[in-house]
Amino acid sequence: MQFLERYQAKNEVDLGWWSLIDRLLVALPENVRIKAIKQKWGVLRITLDNNADEKLLDLVRELETESSTICEFCGKTGEIRGATGLRFVRCLCDEHFAERQHLYVLPKPINPVKRKEKNNE
């Protein structure tokens, strides 16, 4: 398995979440390695190796939860934006959502199919 080096950790997410990664790196003991850091469904996801203790795992859960209210791009207050079925689900502030809003709108169906009910007479 390939692990991330500490200096690579911030490269895995956008600038707005770097302060969260900094908090992780400060608390991360030398014997614990980072398996993965990524954004998934608008939330930061951090995976560590098996050397992580419960206190460190609690911090990871706290950072992941906090990320759902921080814009990934700028670090301002944000919220998870997107729609079910879309791959573009991100945590964004109002400004960054407005810039990308066209990515988060579901297309309207052209010709919805209407079912005829059978007449049971």
What does this structure look like?
With 121 residues, this protein is an alpha+beta fold. The chain has one domain. It has three helices and four strands. The longest helix is centred in the middle third of the chain and has 14 residues. It is elongated. It starts with 17 loop residues before the first helix and ends in a 21-residue tail after the last helix.
Give helix and strand order, one letter per element, not per position. HEEHEEH
Task: Give the helix tally.
Answer: 3
Oligomer: single chain
Report helical residue fraction. 25-40%
Structural class, from secondary structure content?
Answer: alpha+beta
Kindly summarize this structure in a few lines.
This protein is α+β, with helices and mostly antiparallel strands. The protein has helices at 18-27, 54-67, 94-100, and strands at residues 34-40, 43-48, 79-81, 90-92. The strands form two sheets. Strands 1-2 form a two-stranded antiparallel ribbon. A two-stranded antiparallel ribbon has the order 3-4.
What labels would you give this structure?
121 residues
Please write out the topology.
Elements: H1 18-27, E1 34-40, E2 43-48, H2 54-67, E3 79-81, E4 90-92, H3 94-100
Antiparallel strand pairs: 1-2, 3-4
